[in-house]
Design a protein that fits this description.
Bound molecules: flavin-adenine dinucleotide
Shape: globular
CATH superfamily: D-Amino Acid Oxidase, subunit A, domain 2
CATH topology: D-Amino Acid Oxidase, Chain A, domain 2
CATH class: Alpha Beta
Distance between the termini: 46 Å
Strand content: 15-25%
Number of strands: 22
Low-confidence stretches: none
Helix content: 25-40%
Length: 446
């Protein structure tokens, strides 16, 4: 693997590939190596089977604080603008979206939400009654309670795996000394005088700047190198059910989110058109504690336990969630969704909040669909972090990317590219004007 690189990026998901792209397109940095352990890119959480494919903008996510909205919207806008430069592809699809409020308390809540974000999202509308039934007939069919929604035509469904391929291979980067090493597993990283040496199954790589965008394993790498000890990881697996009408069609055309519990960082159950299966609706994700780095890979459960052990601070954070009157029942219910026989029954009750007329034969457990979120835990306060996190060390950056980490890929890349250019020094620069011109303007979500 030879020569000294300027930058090594560990992780070929949407975070690592976005940085690979931004360094090539908007900086004059040369000699960059992207290292990925699997034979292809984006096989884990960035795979469109493993996540909900939503570009989160902050309008229908009632658990995002008002303060956070401009930042999330900016991140989403970068991805939407990137996609607008692509030829007609299946990478990104325009898709209407809504957050549904059921009964007066939730309807009041979404009305107030609308009031507080209308200035940022002028296209967002409050809809109810016949209009809601026209937009989403199945959401209103057989409904006995009152319902209303905040609705927008400005949503996007994203195949983040295809996006990763576009970032990595969409333009030729070879002449800039950019390379991708697949099937290359990073086992250890050590600090050297000039940067870091990365020890892989295919030999050592030396780099002046290193970015760890390895998803669930990023925090473990940080801990090993003496960083991020105030953070712990709570691994939460998500499953999905597929839903179809009796005639084998999708049940909804919009992304239908529900009001979220703002004590929890992950989305409440929602129904989404599947970007890869237009005749199906995906209900989920569920949330179940599952110690592992990778879904469907038992070996990584052992690795997880070896790496983090039984962490008392994370256990305390979970204890706090379990005794809470809102989050306790949520966790208990979610634990049941995977149980044989009753799992589907309990899930059906929950999914009927979105499609009241849903019958058992209309839903089916989606096998092999759903990844694993490593929610960050603040070990001092024993609370769950509500978003992604970045730890910047000496010549090394660690990206921890629970949801909405995929949405944030280009914003993360912009920040990391600037840090790298600053670290490597003159004559390297980040072309902010070109970045803004191509990816920030005009606002595609206005
Ligand atoms: C159920 C679920 C639903 C979600 N829904 C959404 C959503 O709708 N919208 C959204 O924005 N986000 C969503 N997310 C979050 C989103 O999937 C992640 O934030 C995003 O995919 C993270 O991308 P990443 O590149 O950082 O990590 P990953 O996609 O996990 O990629 C990390 C890469 O690093 C590689 N790697 C790891 N360790 C090593 C090593 N030692 N050596 C070499 N390579 C290594 C892995 O093989 C992998 O390819 C969801 C997540 C889940 C689980």
């Amino acid at each position: 693997m030879g020569k000294m690189r300027n930058v090594a990026i560990v992780g070929g998901g949407v975070t690592g590939t976005a940085l690979y792209n931004v360094l090539a397109e908007y900086t004059n940095v040369r000699d960059v190596l992207l290292i990925e352990q699997h034979p292809g890119l984006a096989r884990l959480n960035s795979n469109s089977k493993w996540n909900s494919q939503t570009l989160h903008e902050g309008d229908i996510e009632t658990n995002y604080s008002r303060d956070r909205v401009p930042q999330v919207k900016d991140a989403a806008g970068l991805v939407a603008n990137y996609a607008s430069h692509l030829p007609e592809t299946q990478i990104v699809r325009r898709c209407p979206k809504m957050v549904l409020g059921v009964d007066s308390e939730e309807i009041d809540l979404i009305w107030n939400r609308w009031d507080s974000v209308q200035d940022v999202f002028p296209a967002l509308r409050f809809v109810e009654g016949k209009e809601l039934a026209l937009l989403e007939p199945k959401v209103m069919e057989d409904r006995t309670e009152s319902a209303a929604a905040l609705y927008s035509n400005n949503g996007y469904a994203v195949a983040f795996d295809k996006l990763s391929y576009s970032f990595a291979y969409g333009t030729d980067k070879k002449d800039k000394g950019f390379d991708i090493a697949l099937e290359t597993r990073v086992n250890a990283i050590e600090k050297t005088k000039d940067g870091h040496v990365i020890k892989t199954n295919k030999g050592d790589v030396e780099a002046r700047a290193v970015v760890i965008s390895s998803g669930t394993t990023s925090l473990a790498f940080a801990h090993r190198l003496g960083y991020g000890h105030g953070l712990g990881a709570l691994p939460v697996a998500g499953n999905f059910y597929y839903g179809q009408t009796d005639r084998g069609e999708a049940l909804v055309r919009s992304k239908v989110y529900t009001v979220q519990n703002d004590k929890l960082p992950f989305a409440a159950l929602h129904a989404d058109p599947d970007i890869n299966a237009p005749d199906k609706t995906r209900f989920g994700p569920t949330a179940r504690l599952l110690p592992a780095f990778e879904r469907y890979n038992a070996r990584t459960s052992l690795e997880f336990v070896r790496e983090f052990g039984i962490d008392g601070d994370v256990a305390l954070a979970v204890g706090k969630l379990l005794v809470d009157e809102d989050t306790g029942p949520f966790i208990a219910r979610n634990a049941l969704y995977d149980a044989p026989f009753i799992g589907k029954r309990v899930f059906l009750d929950e999914a009927r909040k979105i499609v009241p007329a849903l019958k058992p034969q209309n839903i089916k457990f989606a096998k092999g669909v759903g990844g694993i979120r490593h929610q960050l835990v603040d070990k001092r306060n024993h609370t769950l972090g509500k978003k992604e996190a970045k730890v910047v060390g000496n010549g090394i950056i660690f990206n921890m990317t629970p949801s909405p980490g995929a949405t944030s890929c280009l914003q993360n890349a912009e920040n990391d590219a600037k840090t790298i250019v600053g670290l490597l020094g003159d004559p390297l620069e980040f072309d902010q004007a070109a970045f803004d011109r191509n990816l920030r303007l005009p606002d595609p979500l206005a």
